[in-house]
Amino acid sequence: MKPLKIGILGLGTVGGGTFDVLTRNGNEISRRAGRDIQIVAVGARNPERAIKRMSGVAIPVMSLEQTVASPDVDVIVETLGGYEPAKSLILKAIANGKHVVTANKALLAMHGDEIFSAARAKGMIVAFEAAVAGGIPIIKALREGLVANRIEWIAGIINGTTNFILSEMRSKGLPFETVLADAQAKGYAEADPTFDIEGIDAGHKVSILAAIAFGIPLSFEKAHVEGITKIQAQDIRYAEEMGYRIKLLGIARRRENGIELRVHPTLIPAKRLIANVEGVMNAVLVKGDAAGATLYYGPGAGATATASAVIADLVDVARLIDADASHRVPYLAFHHDRIGTEPVLAIDEVQTSYYLRLRVDDKPGVLADITRILADNHLSIDALLQKEPDEGEAQTDIILLTHETVEKNVRRAIAAIEALATTRAKVVLLRLENLA
Q1: pLDDT tens digits, 133-174
Q2: I need a labelling partner for 216 at 20 to 30 A (CA). Which of 49, 196, 237, 375 fits?
Q3: Which letter, b or e, does each residue of 13-44 get, where b requires 16 or more Cβ atoms within 10 Å of its Cβ?
Q4: Would you state the pLDDT for residue 58?
Q5: What CATH superfamily is the domain 145-298?
Q6: What b/e sequence results for 106-120 when a residue is b if at least 16 CB atoms lie within 10 Å of its CB, and e otherwise?
Q7: Phi, psi of 423 (to 5 degrees)
């Protein structure tokens, strides 16, 4: 059987890792694929750097445009990241009759529908296992392994940088800024960490997972996205005292009135396995009606871990390249003419439980006023922690955990609590998921 010939766009972390693993494990991979998978071209912005990275391996290095146009290439592996030139190059590759493997979650979350439409028209495969959670095969699990299930919800730690920061804040009691600087020094955070710490990266990923799980269009622009920059060490400490840990979760949940699609810091019971995922590791919890809750854990980034997912996609292409396009697994699991129309719910319509931290005067009647406001807004208290004021202080912290409610009720209650003469600071709101 003739080999599958690939061209890699970019030889950075992911592209270089793919090159290394294919070179090292080529024989084993070809035995699984049923044919050899050969790198026949590398597209690079800086050819000299790419040649040096390849350590003398005799593979042609071309421009990015030459690689997608090369008649010798069957599959383009895009590892450039970002929106452009990645989008234009992928569309040109598809127009030139080439299949595509990509690790580019940002591009797919924003422009995936356009890319999939172009590929469908040409009968091309677009595979993207490496776009979410690195070496964890969560895309394949949702598209194939759990195909019998009506997926009820997904909750994932899908950004290693923020998980490292929150883990360090919890274990060492350090403030956010200090841990972020340490993460940058260790290479876990970029010089500009905005996409990670503001939740954007996780938002891209959970949007892809939601589309596959629920059969809805890619909807990143409708997702509610919050990062971890406002998390304070004292809230991590209070959560721990009450039996919870704070993680940045990407959450997609099916409701009767639509789909919740959100990223934010979340309290999780410490006894849950996912609450104990530390450092830069990722984990995705999926609840299906037939299989129940299944947990997928592993490295969410890194050269070889992500390369593992890229090469898994290449093996799938090698197996399916000669198959009729109508017999392949649809890009987003559901056939394109059966994509649903369920709305993505605004954050005010989300239903969950809440952690509220109030800074109030330490005097009689304050708690009674607060509980009255909560009752007026249909909130019930699940747990309460009132801290002893520091010596000489006339103020104290009250921490409340609520039962599940609609967010707009919580927002109204917070506005009323902040209007009390006895409230001394803005109320801190965090969401809580039991993930039972």
Answers
A1: 988 999 999 999 999 999 999 999 999 999 999 999 999 999
A2: 196
A3: bbbbbbbbbbeeeeeebbeebebbbbbbbbbb
A4: 84
A5: Dihydrodipicolinate Reductase; domain 2 (3.30.360.10)
A6: bbbbbbbbebbebbe
A7: -90, 130
Dist CA 151 CA 289 (whole Å): 6
End-to-end CA distance of the chain: 49
pTM for the model stands at: 0.95
How far is residue 169's CA from residue 162's CA, in Å, rounded to a whole number?
A: 10
Average pLDDT over residues 55-66: 90
**Beta partners for 353?**
432
CB atoms under 10 Å from CB of 230, counted, come to: 11
Q: Can you give the pLDDT at residue 182? A: 94
Q: Could you say which DSSP state residue 426 is in?
A: P
Q: Does domain 4-135+303-338 have CATH number 3.30.230.10?
A: no
Domain boundaries, the chain: 4-135+303-338, 145-298, 348-432
Could you say which of 205, 222, 408, 426 is catalytic?
205
| 205 among known catalytic residues | yes
Q: pLDDT band at 298, cuts 50/70/90?
A: very high
- pLDDT > 80? residue 392: no
Q: Give CA–CA dist 258/271, Å, rounded.
A: 30
Amino acid at 373: I
Task: Please name the helix (run of DSSP H) or strand (run of DSSP E) that holds residue 385, with its range, or none.
Answer: strand 381-386
Long-range pairs of 296-299 with CB within 8 A, sequence gap ≥ 24: 296/133, 296/136, 296/137, 296/138, 296/141, 297/136, 297/273, 298/133, 298/134, 298/135, 298/136, 299/134, 299/135, 299/136, 299/160
| 348-432 has CATH 1.25.40.10 classification | no
344: which DSSP letter?
B
Average pLDDT over residues 421-434: 97
Condensed to tens digits (0 to 9), the pLDDT of residues 317-350 reads 999 998 888 889 999 999 999 999 999 999 999 9
| % pLDDT > 90, the chain | 91
